[in-house]
């Protein structure tokens, strides 16, 4: 397993090996790409926005989805890391692994552990995705193995029933 540096990420996108829709040059990092917020939901308040800003109250759970749709081949997976600028403000997040063969937007759970409101804006860079090559291609990619969230768009909390 090897983490892809910036130039390999850009080369893989340029050559159509993988894709990041709505690619933003300001999001590329030395070893990843910062995914931006498209949608914010605070379940306890019923609030859901796709434009503007929202204040996340203290001790409150929220969800975000990404602007970017990520498309990975069957030999590249990814790790997700909350940007440290959010950690320093008091946000923690539930993140996972992006399986080889995944296609779609990504949904994250966040929690404001601080005692103050934290403002989030649509298009803020929120999570870094770090791509890594598998030692060999997956025998059965995410789409065929489970594909529970394949093709998701926006905040998706339940598996998609109609698998692609």
From TrEMBL:
SUPFAM superfamilies: dUTPase-like. Its EC number is 3.5.4.13. GO terms for biological process: dUTP biosynthetic process. InterPro entries: dCTP_deaminase, dUTPase-like_sf, dUTPase_trimeric. CDD domains: trimeric_dUTPase. Keywords: Hydrolase, Nucleotide metabolism. It comes from the Archaea. GO terms for molecular function: dCTP deaminase activity. Pfam families: DCD. This is Deoxycytidine triphosphate deaminase. It comes from Methanomassiliicoccus intestinalis (strain Issoire-Mx1). The lineage of its organism: Archaea, Methanobacteriati, Thermoplasmatota, Thermoplasmata, Methanomassiliicoccales.
């Amino acid at each position: 397993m090897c983490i892809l540096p910036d130039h390999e990420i850009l080369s893989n996108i340029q050559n159509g090996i993988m894709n990041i829709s709505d690619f933003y040059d300001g999001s590329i990092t030395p070893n990843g790409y910062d995914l931006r917020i498209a949608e914010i939901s605070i379940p306890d308040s019923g609030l859901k926005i796709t434009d503007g800003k929202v204040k996340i109250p203290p001790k409150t759970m929220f969800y975000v989805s990404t602007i970017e749709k990520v498309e990975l081949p069957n030999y590249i997976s990814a790790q997700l890391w909350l940007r440290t600028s959010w950690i320093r403000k008091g946000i923690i997040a539930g993140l996972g692994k992006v399986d080889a063969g995944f296609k779609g937007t990504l949904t994250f759970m966040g929690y404001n552990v601080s005692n103050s409101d934290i403002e989030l804006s649509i298009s803020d860079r929120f999570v870094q995705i770090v791509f890594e090559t598998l030692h060999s291609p997956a025998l059965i990619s995410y789409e065929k193995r489970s594909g529970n969230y394949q093709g998701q768009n926006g905040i998706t909390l339940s598996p998609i029933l109609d698998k692609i």
